Structure formats: C-alpha cells, structure tokens
Amino acid sequence: MNGSELTTDTGYQGLLGKISEVYATGQARAAQAVNVHITETYWQIGRDIVEFEQEGNARAAYGKGLLDRLSRDLTLRHGKGFSRSNVVRIRQFYLAHPKGATLSHQLSWSHIVELLKIDDPLERGFYEQQAIREKWAVRELKRQKETSLFLRLAAGKDKEAILQLASQGQVVTGPTDLLRDPYVFEFLKIPEPHQVSETDLETRLCDHLQPFLLELGKGFTFVGRQYRITLNNTHYRVDLVFYHRILRCFVLIDLKINDVKHHDIGQMNMYLGYFATEENTEGDNPPIGIILTRNKDELLVEYATYQMNSQLFVQKYQLYLPDREELRRELELTLQLAEDHDCDEKP
Asked: Which fold has domain 183-321?
C-alpha cells in the first residue's frame, strides 16, 4: 500500500488518531508530573528557609539580606528559577501552606505565584478553590482577580456565606448562585465615554464569546442570539439564550443600555413562560431569566416582580473594572458588623 492509499485508508486513520491521542495524553501527564515535582520542591525549599530563619539569634545576623544572598548564590549554582522575587514567593508559599503543598497536583507554579500576590487569606482561598474547580488557565485567573470576582460575589452575603465562599469557591446549586453584582465586560475594551446601542453591545459580546462565558461562570453553553419565539403570529426575540449544564435549564439574557422598565420585566416573564412550555424537554428545569442593565431602580424592580417568577433577575453590568477598594470596604464592613453582633450576643 503506497502513501496516498494509507492517507485515505480508514483503518490507518484510526491508528493515527489513536497514537496521537495517546501521545497527547502522555505529554499532559508528563507536564503535570513535572509541575507537581517543581511545586513540591519549592515548598521544601520554602520550609528550609523558614526553619533556618527560626533558629534564633545565631541566624538573626542574616536578617533581610538572607533572601538576597540566597537568590545570588543559588542562581550562580543552578541558573534560572532563583530570582529574588521567586525566592520571596517560595518562602511565602510555605508560610501560606505550612502543612504541605496541597495545590501541587492541581495548579501550576504560575497559578500559585498569582495567588500569592493576594494578601487577604479569604480572597486567596476563594481564588484557589475556584481556579481548581473551574480549571482556570493562568490568564483566566488573572482576569478574574482584576475584575474582583470574589468581592463581587461576596457583595450582599452574610458572614457565614462569605466564609463558605472563601473556603469552597462558588458552588452552583440554584439560580441565585449564577448571579454577579455587577457583571463586568471590560474585555470589550469600549473607551469611555463611548456609548453603544443594545445591538452593538450584543454583537460585541458574541464576538468575545470566550471571555463572556468566563464572566458568566462555569456551566454555560451558548445556544443563540436573537432567538425567535412566536405567539399568535407575533414574533419576539430573546437577545441571548444559553443552557446551563449544571442546573439543567435555559438561561435567557436581555440587554438594556437604559433603565429597566416594568414592561421589560413583564416581557422577560413571558419569555420564561414560553420556554418552560415550548422549549423545555424531559429533565429540564424551569428556565432562568436575567435582564442586564447599566442602571437598576431597586424599588421599581421590587414592585414589578411582586409575586412573579422567582427565576427572574435584574442585574447590573458595567463596561469597566469595578472599584476594588469600594467593594473591599463593603466586605470588611459586613464582616465587622457580624463580629460586633456576635460579641453583643455573648453573655
């Protein structure tokens, strides 16, 4: 059999595919094994540094110059990998995880370095769990840090929920677990004070579907845009339709660049009724509706949704990064109020 015949032979193509799959799997396992070894090695080096520092006055003379000296001497001996910043992170890694390099089998050293840049242990714990849970690449981890995902998800939660979020990450068990306050679309790179139409915003989001799905969170799959439904020969269109694999339901999104009106809420409720009756199949749960708006009148939303579908939400979005310090102050205030309340209740 000559080369051209092998190329078209289905048996040969199957063999080629099988070998390629085995090779790719082997490469991935090898890379993971190298990562585990590097991370565990750095943890051991961090432990040695800290133990050396803790041996009392005999070592106190090294002081802050210890890391500089180690960086210089280790680089001379071993080359790359021992810049001063990396030696600092290695020491910090051990201090953050003194019981063992528990992340070594799940996250790369590059992930860990990004996590160690977070000072607050609650916030760091959340991103650790979330990066593992959602298998974020380093680039995705950086983006979620920059958009203050933890602080946005923690907004409006009580102390117990915040602590659970920090220790477990975001666990999606119901519709409210999907929500973010606000949603951030900084990846569209729309310059201030440029105004976009609803159609333009929808187009831009679809053109940047991968970061949009990252912002929506784990479990979303794209179904379509301008999804047409017909009632009594009248056509309506839902801006964006997704299906959530974990909650097993459709998620309908309507985009608004101006204030949400009561009829927008009524229209979304109609969409939900239609999907529940006409689009759901066996095993599907009731659909979820999210109206995304630049501005939200809380009182209007409260009255407009009175005794309405509990699966309908009005959430804010913004085109630029949120004010991290403002979000952090809100979180700290919530935790402080909870601490004060606990103190008041003690006998």
From this structure: Trna Endonuclease; Chain: A, domain 1 (3.40.1350)
How many whole angstroms separate alpha carbon 70 and alpha carbon 59? 14
Q: DSSP assignment, residue 261?
A: P
The answer to whether 333 and 157 have CB atoms below 8 angstroms apart is no
Residues written for the chain: 347
Strand 249-256 relative to strand 288-293: parallel, antiparallel, unpaired?
A: parallel
3-state secondary structure of 228: strand
Question: Which tens digit of pLDDT belongs to each residue from 107-146?
Answer: 899 999 999 999 999 999 999 999 999 999 999 999 999 9
The predicted-structure confidence for 29-61, as pLDDT tens digits, reads as follows 887 788 888 899 999 999 999 988 887 655 555
Residues 6+ apart with CB under 8 A from 33: none
- Domain extent listing, the chain: 3-105, 118-177+324-347, 183-321
Q: Could you tell me the sign of the dihedral formed by the alpha carbons of 163, 166, 170, 171, in that order?
A: negative
